[in-house]
Amino acid sequence: MFELLRRDGLARICKLDTPHGALETPALLPVINPRNITVPLDELHDDLGFKAIITNSYIIRNNEELRERALREGLHELLGYDGVIMTDSGTFQSYMYGEVDVRNEDIVAFQRDIGSDIGTVLDIFTEPDWSEERTSEAVDVTLARTEEAARLKGDMLLAGVVQGSVFPDLRERCARSLASIDADVHPIGGVVPLMEQYRFADLVDVIVASKKGLTPARPVHLFGAGHPMVFALAALLGCDMFDSASYAKFARDGRFMFPEGTASLSDMKGISCHCPACSRHTYEEIVKMKPAERTALIARHNLWVSQEEIGRIKRAIMEGDLWELVERRCRGHPALLDALRRLGDHEEFLELTEPLSRDNSLFYTGPETLKRPAIRRYARRFFERYEYPDTEVMIVFDESSKPYGRYRQQEMRDVLAECDSHFFVESVLGPVPIELDEMYPIAQSVLPVRRDREAVEGLREMMERMSHEHPYAIAVGWDGRRTLETLSMMCSETPKFDLDMARVKAVADMQFGRGAGRALLDGDVELKKSENTGKIRNVLVDGEHVLSMRANDGFFTLKVAGAERLRKAFPAPRLRVQVKEDSVPFNREGKNVFCSFVEECDPDIRPMDEVLVVDPSDELVAVGRALLTRDEMFAFSTGIAVKVRDGVKK
Ligand code: GUN
Ligand code: ZN
Question: For FRET with 281, which of 290, 329, 436, 600 sits at 20 to 30 Å CA-CA?
Fold first, then answer.
């Protein structure tokens, strides 16, 4: 079973059940050469915390003594390791050294018979310089072998590898076909040469194309990714598992891995690391060590640093700052910066799993930040969903302290004493109507004061687009007193802009879709505010509580009366998760919606969205927060799809 515990976008913390216990992901599996073990396996497991390793069944099978012992005693006894053991099949050997003398069915059965927890098919390693035709044929063979392996796997989990080289269509086709085969883990294969050549931007395309075809309900492993500087990026794109022989290979070459890159002992003038391996020695001692001793030390360092990075990524997934971590890591090497920039080409795909908001503030780390799905979504929704209030004047303020409304309070008061005006702020995230100033990511983003060229250019385009769309008779940039004097001569209508009402309507439209504000607020509206902060708390319409506004992200939580209004205003399946009949009584009681009970779902629902839970005849049974997208709800057989807040009792 593969269970999702926490997620941020495509990145996730999951639990994979194996015959040797549960494996929490993201996880790095060190590669163990059964004939040459650099770090003892009990130390790996107990001290360094590696609860899973990967070894090569082809090497074991080709050595008579190892083969016999493995078949007799089992793989775990052979290696003296009680954690999760994944095995590879010999594919990598065939890539490195030419043909291997083993058949798929034999190596899969062998892995099963020696008690591997996760065995791998004998896939065909598709190389980056192959033609599309040759690659396509290799994908077909890989798929046929995976089907064969699925029939032979027994109790072993099966790793079905995505091949297809750098052809996105082939990657996606392979991945989609694999999703319908009874495999359990999906490594993305054939990427070692890309990583060796620092083609990280191409690696981004390969991972994205593979993820598009794969089912979200199985873990994804990135074959051969062992440098801690790529873990965060790969995790952001939805890779759950990594494996690596690099820790040992690098160690043999005197190379220390860090999340920021690699340092060679021959270039280093000192040791600045305080990991358990390095801290016991001075730089001079390490330089003078015998090669075997030094290799063992650096291998331990590399493993320790890698494991630290996995821990850091887990924390980032839980705390909501993985994008910041990735942007920082991708500054470790220009080729990684290219990869970060390539993410911008996959904006639409990344947006599909982008949560409505995050707990953490959004830090701008450079112009690449502007391509983040959270920021792109704001601009897209502004142009698609926002309705301009009907005022005569628009004033545009420069970027300022936040929330803008509070910072510009006096200026707005002065203007509204004279004329019927509305207010915008020119933010690099896009034009911000003053009433959206508390909504994620506007209030929660932290930007440098000095703008870079990309930010200025992007903003200019958006302001230009807005200038063609807005309905105001008079539009002016705020220039202090002078603006007031000019306005008093030009404007004629009496002020009517109501910031509170505008806020409720605009946030509703941005959150639920254009027209939601009108549907929710139709009637006698009463706003209840916090006595401490003066912020809107509850929205009552005709005496019914329809919405509550959250202080942290400026969005609404939906009450039953509000959900009922949205249900009437928007046709199915919009904003809805439709559940099966047998789930209805439980959800009415306030119990969560489980994936297996989801009958239909709005494809536009994003994680953390407020949703309507409806029965098969579209009657409202509950309101809550979606944790998954439609595809995920359908793919997972276990887990919560909607965290229900209020049930609608009959
Ligand atoms: N190890 C590194 N790359 C690969 C791959 O593409 N397939 C398999 N089976 N193992 C690998
Ligand atoms: Zn160290």
Answer: 329
Q: What angle do CA 179, 180, 186 make, to 5 degrees?
A: 30
Domain ranges (residues) in the chain: 362-497, 512-647
Ligand 1 atom 10 nearest Cα = 92
| CA pair distance 434, 389, nearest whole angstrom | 11
pLDDT attached to residue 12:
98
DSSP 568-622: HHS-TTTTEEEE-GGGHHHHHTTPPEEGGGEEEE-TT--TT-EEEEE-TT--EEE
- Identify whether 47 is a catalytic site residue: no
Q: For 409-434, what is each residue's pLDDT tens digit?
A: 999 999 999 899 999 999 999 999 99
- Cβ of 123 below 6 Å from ligand 1: yes
CATH code of the domain made up of 362-497: 3.40.50
Residue 204: closest CA among 179, 242, 170, 230? 230
Using one digit for the tens of pLDDT, what is the confidence trace for 53-94? 999 999 999 999 999 999 999 999 999 999 999 999 999 999
Residue from 57, 163, 192 whose mutation best tests the ligand 1 pocket (most atoms within 8 A of CB): 192
CATH class as words, domain 512-647: mainly beta
CB of 160 sitting under 6 A from ligand 1: no
Cα–Cα dist 627/500, whole Å:
30
